[in-house]
UniProtKB/TrEMBL annotation:
One of its GO terms (molecular function) is succinate-CoA ligase (GDP-forming) activity. Belongs to the succinate/malate CoA ligase beta subunit family. This is Succinate--CoA ligase [ADP-forming] subunit beta. It catalyses: (S)-malate + ATP + CoA = (S)-malyl-CoA + ADP + phosphate; GTP + succinate + CoA = succinyl-CoA + GDP + phosphate; succinate + ATP + CoA = succinyl-CoA + ADP + phosphate.
Length: 399
């Protein structure tokens, strides 16, 4: 789960981490009121969307030379003008794709006199089962270019969660950022605080870009992104309450309500599978046969009829879907339950695209009988290869 910048900073402040004062705003009036609470004379108006690259982004409804989604304002009137520009308009960045994201919230913060910009992030390194702290002296909007063109300017410090954050980790961060004296000590303290926030909140990713050194000799978190392990959210109801469903794909939101693992993709063959590995194999074999999957959808091992029906409806709600491949291996999941759900959903939504079903495992014959006797144009397949060939052929024929 992702959250907005202002929410992430609210969480970080609870760990004693320094951030510029700021106020979220859902409308122009709130943006102006927030600016009036700040000392000025420099303000920063930031679009709040779940994507990076906001500073270099462009609004599709504004002229090409209009400023991006992070703007410096030198008066309250300028804050008002920027808020009017941004709210309700679509911001397109390198991370949003061509469709962009509509800006529904802003964050108005105090301006900062910046001396230097740095980069610091943490992610879970699954290969080593450690937490990787990634640091660079080259913070700012072009960090992706730094990683691509000068990777030697990025250093990674790994931390074993069994022992936790140690003083030498903090010294390594300060050394990597080329900081000395009081700033080095501040970096050591900050990196420890960030590690505590990361582990306490069950984060998957915590990115500070930029981490700035002010002209007064302070280290401040100027911008941040946080994402969380969804499986651990039950431990953090305060974090879960920060979820903004308007920033997520509506089909993915609906899937989460039924405990379905669903990710929208760009293809035209809808997939419903039980088990992540089988789902990946199914998507691969669809592509091998000349088509592209429209989604990743894992109904899990313990799905019931209602869950399968919901999954089927979600697939069919995607207008890009021109055919559906159901691939089920019944272990804990019984094939007759899957078949019941397929028939129920297909009748309810008036199935209008080709449907190929491959069933194998527990109660497979009962499942096949249910499909055969449903009165629906469901095509059975003997194995995964046969299923992929049949659905691709059906879609091409229908086109």
């Amino acid at each position: 789960m992702n959250i907005h910048e202002y929410q992430a900073k609210e969480l970080l402040s609870k760990f004693g981490i320094g951030i510029p004062t700021g106020y979220p705003a859902n409308n122009v009036e709130e943006a102006v009121e927030g600016a009036k609470k700040l000392p000025g004379p420099l303000y920063v108006v930031k679009a709040q969307i779940h994507a990076g690259g906001r500073g270099k982004g462009k609004f599709s409804e504004l002229p090409a030379d209009a400023k991006g989604g992070v703007r410096l304002a030198k008066s309250v009137d300028a804050v008002k003008s920027d808020a009017q520009d941004m709210l309700g308009n679509t911001l397109v960045t390198i991370q949003t794709g061509d469709d962009g994201k509509q800006v529904n919230r802003l964050y108005v913060t105090d301006g900062v006199d910046i001396a230097e910009e740095y980069y610091l992030s943490m992610v879970v390194d699954r290969e080593t089962s450690r937490i990787a702290m990634i640091v660079s002296t080259e913070g700012g909007m072009d960090i992706e270019d730094v990683a691509h063109n000068t990777p030697d300017k990025i250093e990674t410090i790994t931390i074993d969660p069994a022992t936790g954050f140690m003083p030498h980790h903090g010294r390594a961060v300060a050394f990597a950022l080329k900081l000395e004296g009081a700033l080095a000590k501040a970096a050591q303290k900050l990196s420890k605080q960030l590690y505590e926030a990361f582990t306490t909140l069950d984060c998957e990713m915590l990115e500070i870009n930029p981490l700035v050194e002010t002209k007064d000799g302070e280290l401040l978190v100027l911008d941040t992104k946080m994402s969380f392990d969804s499986n651990a959210l039950y431990r953090h109801p305060d974090v879960e309450a920060m979820r903004d469903e308007t920033e997520e794909d509506p089909m993915e939101v609906e899937a989460s309500k039924h405990d379905l693992a669903y990710i929208k993709l760009d293809g035209n063959i809808g997939c419903m599978v039980n088990g992540a590995g089988l789902a990946m194999a199914t998507m691969d074999i669809i592509k091998l046969n000349g088509a592209f999957p429209a989604n990743f959808l894992d109904v899990g091992g313990g799905a019931n009829r209602e869950k399968v029906t919901a999954a089927f409806k979600i697939i069919l709600s995607d207008p890009a879907v021109e055919g559906i491949l159901v691939n089920i291996f019944g272990g804990i999941m019984k094939c007759d339950i899957i078949a019941d759900g397929i028939v129920s959903a297909a009748k309810e939504v008036n199935l209008s695209v080709p449907l190929v079903v491959r069933l194998e495992g527990t109660n497979v014959q009962q499942g096949k009988d249910i499909l055969a006797n449903s009165g629906l144009p469901i095509i059975s397949a003997d194995d995964l290869g046969d299923a992929a060939r049949k659905i691709v052929a059906q879609v091409k024929e229908a086109a």
